[in-house]
Specification:
The complex is a heterodimer. Chain A has a single domain, classed as OB fold (Dihydrolipoamide Acetyltransferase, E2P), CATH 2.40.50.1020. In chain A, strand 4 and strand 5 form a beta hairpin. In chain A, the strands form three sheets. Chain A has a five-stranded antiparallel beta sheet. In chain A, strands 8-9-10 form a three-stranded antiparallel beta sheet. Chain A has a two-stranded antiparallel ribbon with strand order 1-2. The longest helix of chain A has 17 residues. Chain A is built from three helices and ten strands; from the N terminus they run αβββββαβββββα. By secondary structure, chain A is of the alpha+beta class. Helices cover about 40% and strands about 20% of the residues of chain B. Chain B has a seven-stranded antiparallel beta sheet with strand order 2-1-5-4-3-7-6. Chain B has a five-stranded mixed beta sheet with strand order 11-13-12-14-15, sandwiched between helices. A three-stranded antiparallel beta sheet of chain B has the order 8-9-10. The longest helix of chain B is centred in the middle third of the chain and has 17 residues. The radius of gyration of chain B is 31 Å and the shape is elongated. The C terminus of chain B is likely disordered. Classes of the chains: A alpha+beta, B alpha+beta.
């Protein structure tokens, strides 16, 4: 395949990846039903006591009962997900801003969509995150 | 690549022509939520509207047969799973698929497997791994209900909470869902409507609804509220703490040796426990008869906060002064069961009120004959089981009220210190008079 065509195909695939995750929907449990969340609609995943809380871009919180490590293993084929902190996995495609909290000094990210909740980027993962976001 | 998800996002697919009143509407397969057969026609759902397709049902089936996400889910029904938000298991054979805009479609058992494979899940009954609280919620038929139950009209209440015949309200179903709905509101950030109140405050909230339904008959539904709430707490579906109920239990977590719990059955012995706490820094609690689930929850939460290291790595020791009889043993068992519910497991249990700790004179003159002529079968069974476990006193069906021992407090103090000696982390006497410090503030720390 000519180089130009190959590049175009790669670009197309990358763009398609931005539109939809290559992964199946993630099932989550509510009181009376199983819901299916598209990975691209997830803002971030965090731990909440002995559960996982998945926040979507609409600001809804969903529950799962496995571990963050276990779920991250399932999500690793999707390049949008990044382990930003021991308790956070974030959708980098959905990140709107990165800022440093004045009083605590920790780094936080906000998201596009109507979600108000924010996720943390640990100092140890900051450099990798900045690289991913083309800040370095 | 999830082609179905991409076409769904881009709202693109194969052309579908739909018949309108005065012509045609052109849409595509990705916008279609489902279509069903009606006398050979395909009735299509798009948004909250329905149209007849220009093609026949058979031709529509052919049209979507190669498209990802389209599935046969029931007789004469094809559903685009890209539009499906959730699955509700009605039982192990029947399921309901719910679209993002709330439309419901049947999924029958014969078509289940393909849908399950599409979602790549072990079951459509529930998410795996599954949590026990979730199991109990399904078992108790607890569900999310949009409308505030207290403000539902009578037909709405019948629609939501009646038996299958539709003529009788299942009060228990209404109550558990009312309790869960209140906790959902609190979890969503609303203040507890009964902060500082008690379980009766919850009862007063739902009582008018039951009154409107003419259900305030001879049955004591306050008891239903109280018992169902305790059951939900026991299954960790919710907690008393979330309601911020007022809890007046007699307990206090020790500062120096909190992992040693000194438990008394009777309120009248609590002052003695406080003195022992002052001396040894142990945790103290009076169960006041059968310990309440609420007291245990508040106690355990405070206990776990105070002793995170101990309760993870060390054994918890419960030294207790209970009546030496079946009832005292049952109270202790209930207390230990309740601790387990709230995450404090496998404690070591040391009883002080045992025959060997009473004098011969006390046993001879102060024993209680546990055999009663009028005891029913249950009473006899309980007594016989207790006898098998303890042999009573020298083989007699006798018990001892712990108050006999408590008349000689220096002896109980010595027994306690002996029992606790090998478990102390900090040897008594501890430096400060802990109880006196916190008692004045009237709070549990």
């Amino acid at each position: 395949m000519p180089k130009k065509k190959e590049e175009n195909l790669e670009l197309l695939l990358a763009l398609l990846m931005r539109i939809a995750s290559p992964l199946k929907s993630i099932p989550v449990q509510t009181a009376d039903a199983m819901y299916f969340i598209r990975p691209e609609n997830i803002a971030f995943i965090t731990t909440d006591e002995k559960r996982l809380a998945i926040y979507d871009l609409d600001g809804n919180s969903w529950t799962r009962f496995d571990t963050l490590t276990g779920l991250e293993e399932k999500l690793k084929k999707d390049p949008r997900f990044f382990h930003s902190h021991k308790s956070f996995c974030i959708n980098t495609y959905a990140v709107k801003s990165l800022y440093k909290e004045e009083d605590k000094g920790s780094w936080k990210v906000t998201f596009h969509g109507s979600i108000q909740e924010e996720a943390i980027v640990s100092t140890g993962n900051l450099q990798a995150f900045k690289k991913l976001m083309e800040l370095e | 690549m999830q082609v179905g998800a991409i076409t769904h996002k881009l709202k693109t697919g194969k052309l579908v022509s739909l018949i309108t009143e005065n012509g045609f509407l052109f849409s595509n397969t990705s916008e279609l939520i489902a279509f069903k057969s009606d006398h050979g026609n395909a009735i299509c759902s798009i948004g909250d509207k329905k149209y007849t397709a220009a093609k026949s049902y058979t031709d529509m089936v052919k049209l979507v047969s190669t498209l990802p996400g389209w599935f046969h889910t029931a007789s004469g029904l094809r559903v685009n799973l890209n539009h499906i938000a959730s699955v509700i298991a009605k039982n192990d054979k029947e399921y309901t698929l719910v679209s993002h805009n709330g439309l419901k479609f049947d999924l029958n058992k014969s078509f289940y497997e393909k849908v399950q494979k599409y979602y790549d899940v072990k079951t459509l009954q529930h998410v795996t791994p599954f949590s026990l609280p979730q199991y109990w919620m399904m078992d108790m038929n607890i569900r999310h209900i949009d409308k505030d139950i207290m403000y539902m009209k009578i037909p709405e209440l019948f629609e939501e909470f009646s038996t299958e015949a539709g003529d009788t309200i299942v009060v228990s179903d209404l109550i558990v869902n009312f309790l869960y709905q209140q906790v959902e509101y609190i979890r969503d950030g609303e203040d507890s409507p009964i902060e500082g109140g008690n379980v009766r405050s919850l009862w007063y909230m739902i009582k008018p609804t039951l009154s409107r339904l003419d259900l305030l008959d001879g049955t004591n539904h306050y008891k239903t509220v109280s018992s169902r709430l305790a059951e939900m707490v026991e299954h960790r579906i919710l907690s008393y703490g979330e309601f911020e109920l007022y809890e007046y239990g007699l307990w206090n977590v020790g500062l120096y040796n909190p992992h040693i719990i000194f438990l008394a059955e009777k309120r009248s012995h609590y002052q003695f426990l406080q003195q022992m706490q002052d001396h040894a820094g142990v945790t103290i609690i009076s169960s006041e008869g059968q310990p309440s689930m609420m007291t245990c929850e508040y106690f355990c939460e405070a206990f776990k906060k105070k002793v995170p290291e101990y309760w993870k790595h060390d054994r918890i020791v419960i030294i207790n002064i209970m009546d030496y009889d079946p009832h005292g043993y049952m109270i202790l068992d209930t207390f230990i069961d309740n601790l387990r519910v709230f995450g404090i497991k496998h404690p070591i249990e040391i009883k002080l009120s045992l025959p060997e700790n009473y004098t011969d004179l006390e046993i001879e003159f102060q024993h209680i004959n546990l055999e009663k002529d009028d005891d029913d079968d249950v009473g006899n069974t309980i007594l016989n089981k207790w006898m098998k476990k303890t042999e009573g006193i020298n083989g007699n069906k006798w018990g001892m009220e712990v108050d006999v021992m408590m008349l000689d407090r220096p002896r109980v103090r010595e027994l306690f210190l002996d029992a606790a000696a090998s478990w102390f982390k900090i040897q008594p006497p501890v430096r400060r008079r802990v109880w006196e410090e916190i008692h004045g503030r009237g709070i549990h720390i």
